[in-house]
Amino acid sequence: MKVQECSTIGCTRQAAFTTRKNPAWCTECIDDVLRAGGLVAVEPFSGPDAHRLGRCLTCGVQAHYTLKYTVEKNGVGEKTCRACFWRSWAVRARARDGLGVRRRYATEEIVRRLDAAGWEFLGTLVEVTDEYEPVLGKCRSCGRIQAAQVGDFACSCSRNTRSRYPTEKPTGKVPFAASGSEALAWWDHDANDPSSLATATVGARRDAHWRCPTCGLRFAKKVYEMAERPVCPACAQRESEAWRAEYERLSVTPVAAVPGLLAAWADDADPHQVMVAGSFGSYKFRCPNGHRPRLDPHTYHSRGCPSCKAKVTRAEPQVLAEVLPEIASQWHPARNGKYAPGNVVWNSKRNVWWRSDCCGHEWQEAVVDRDKYQRLRCPACRTILGSLAWCDPGLAAEWSPANPITPWHVRPHGNTPFVPEWICSINSGHVWQMPLSSRTNGAECPECRPTGKSRVELDHHAAALEVFGAAQSGALLRDPAFIARKAWTADVLVNTAEERVVIEYDGAYWHRPAAKVLVDISKSRDLLAAGYCVVRLREDDLPALEIAHPRYREFRVYSAAPRPRESMEAIRGWLPNSKGTTSG
Q1: How many distinct structural domains can be found in the chain?
Q2: Tens of pLDDT along 165-196?
Q3: Both 153 and 102 in a single domain?
Q4: What global pTM score does this model have?
Q5: Using one digit for the tens of pLDDT, what is the confidence trace for 66-83?
Q6: What are the contacts of 181-185 at 24+ separation with CB within 8 A?
Q7: Which of 132, 295, 310, 312 is the most exposed place for a label (fewest CB within 10 A)?
Q8: Residue 450 lies in a domain
C-alpha cells in the first residue's frame, strides 16, 4: 500500500491520503488547515474531495465543505464558512444598491424553491430573509448541508451531464492506424518510432512527426490535431497569402464582373457599384433552387446559398426518435396533435407534452430542454436520463430495494455515496455489496461466479480449436460501439479470414432468469454493433432471444447429449452465408 509523509514542515506523521503533485497532510494537520479557515470538523476525514461536516468558529453554522475548497479559500485569505460570507456580502450589496431591504421571501416560498431543486429546507440564518441573505438546506440525495442564497442551491450529486453532443458519433479509444484518417498518409515512418503508430489513438495528445504529401515539409504536431484535420504549416501559410491576395482583388471587383454572382443577384442596388469583397451590407440573392437569402456578396461567392447547405444538414438524422430514443419514449401519445418524435428535431424549442412511464406524471417542456440542465427523466420522481435502469436493465434487475436510491436515479458509471447492495437474479438468497463501477465492468455474483470454465464450455472451446484451427476462451472484448457496458467476455472467440465470431454457450439454469435474458440481449446487440458475428448455443428449452440480424444465429443444444463438434461444424457451415441471411 502506498504511503506518503505529511507535507507540513517538521511533521513526520503519515499523510491521511496520497497525491502525485499536491500537498497531503496527516489528520492533525488537516484539522489545523480547517481551523485556519475558521472551521472545526464534526465528522472524521474521508478524503480531500469528500464533503465533510464542519462547524464555523464564528457563527456556529454547520455545513459540508471539502478540504480542497478550504485550502483554496485559505490561499486567498478568505474564510470557508459560506453563511458568514453571504451575510457580509448581503450587507455590502444593499449598501451599494442603496435600496434597503430587497424582495422578502416567505418561508413557504423558500421551502417550495428548495424542494423543486431537491433540497430540504433547514431554516433561515437571519430573522428576515431577502434575496441577498443565505438560508440553510440539505440535499435529499446525498445529505450534503449547504448555506447559500435561495436561488443558488445545487448539488454535484444531481449533475447528469452527457459525455458528448447528441448527434456526434462515439469515438472511444479508436486506434489511429485503424481510423482511416486522411492523416495516415502524412505519417513520417522514418522519423517516428515504429511502436508509435501501433499504440496511438485518434485522441492522443502526444507529438508525432509528419510529412506533407504536397510539398514534402516535415514537421511535428499532436496526433489528435492531425487526425481531426491534417494541415501543413507551409501550405497553410501559402493558402492564407493567396486568400488575402484574392480578397484584395475582389475588393475592387464589382458583382457584375462575376457571372455566378450576377446571375443570382436580385437586389435593387446596381451590381456595377457593389464590390464583391468589402461590401458588408445585406443584399438580396436568388439561388437556382429558388431560395432568397440576404447576405454580403463575398459570403455568397465563397459559401453559396445557406438554405441549400442547411438542406444537406437536415438530411442527416436529427429527429428526436433517432437521436434521443429515451426521451422519445416519453412523448405523450395524445396531447401533441400532429407532432411526433419522428417529425420533430431533437433540439426543437417547441413546448410539447410528456408523460412519465414510471408514475404517469404529465408536464409541458421544450424538446431541447429535456436534454439540458439536470437531464431529468421525470421532474416528479427526479429520475434521470441515461440511468442504469435504461442502459443496462439486466444489471438493474439485481439492484436491491434496500439501496437508498433506485437504478433510475444513478448512471452506470456514476459515483454513489454508499456501496450498493445487490440481489442475485439466479438465487435470491445471494445478497452482497459491491461498487457500481465493479458491476458495470463485468463483476458477477461472488457466490455464483465459477472459478473456471464448466466442462461443457471447455469441450466446445476444444471443438472450436479442432474445426477452426484457432480459438480463444474467455477473451475480454472492448469496442467504442459497445453501449450497455464497456467490456464483454466472450465464451469462445474465433477469428477467421473473413469474420470475427463470438460463440456463447447459454446453459438453461444460468440463462433462464429474466435479468439474464436482458443481459444476453444487450451483450448480443453490442457485439453485433461492433461487427462481430454472434452465435448462441441455447440449451434445452430456452426461448429464442428474438434478435433479427444477418450476423446473428442461434442453435439448439441439449445438456443431456452435448455434441460440441457438430455444433462447431454447423457454425462453420453457416458463416459463409451470414452476410445474406437473417437469424433463424
Answers
A1: 6
A2: 777 765 556 788 878 889 999 999 999 988 88
A3: yes
A4: 0.57
A5: 999 999 999 999 999 999
A6: 181/226, 181/227, 181/230, 182/230, 183/210, 183/226, 183/227, 183/230, 185/213
A7: 312
A8: no
- Kindly state whether residue 353 falls inside one of the protein's structural domains: yes
8 Å CB contact between 258 and 276: yes
Helices and strands (H, E) in the chain, number of each type: 19, 21
Using only C-alpha atoms, what is the Rg of the chain? 32
Residue 152 banded pLDDT, cuts 50, 70, 90: confident
- The answer to whether the CB of 293 falls within 8 A of the CB of 307 is yes
Close Cβ partners of 73 (under 8 Å, ≥ 6 residues apart): 37, 79, 80
Provide the percentage of residues in the chain whose pLDDT is more than 90. 52
3-class state of residue 17 by DSSP: coil
The pLDDT score that the predictor gives to residue 283 is 93
Whether 381 is in a domain gets the answer: yes
Here the cell at position 356 is 412519465
Give the cell for residue 238. 501559402
Give CA–CA dist 389/407, Å, rounded. Answer: 5
Phi then psi for residue 457, to 5 deg, are -70, -40
Q: Which residues constitute the domain of residue 489?
A: 455-580
C-alpha cell at 19: 497525491
Query: What are the backbone angles phi and psi of residue 473, rounded to the nearest 5°?
Result: -110, 125
C-alpha cell read off for 49 = 474531495
Query: Are 147 and 61 a contacting pair, CB within 8 Å?
Result: yes
Angle in degrees, CA 52, 58, 61, rounded to 5: 45
CB 559 within 8 A of CB 538: no
Mean pLDDT of 417-422: 88
Give the pLDDT band (50/70/90) at residue 22: confident
- The C-alpha cell that represents 582 in the structure block: 437473417
Residues 44 and 153 in one domain: yes
Whether residue 357 contacts residue 341, with contact meaning beta carbons closer than 8 Å, is answered with no
The angle that helices 27-36 and 67-75 make with each other, rounded to 10 degrees, is: 50
Are 338 and 219 found together in one domain?
Answer: no
Establish if 165 belongs to a structural domain: no
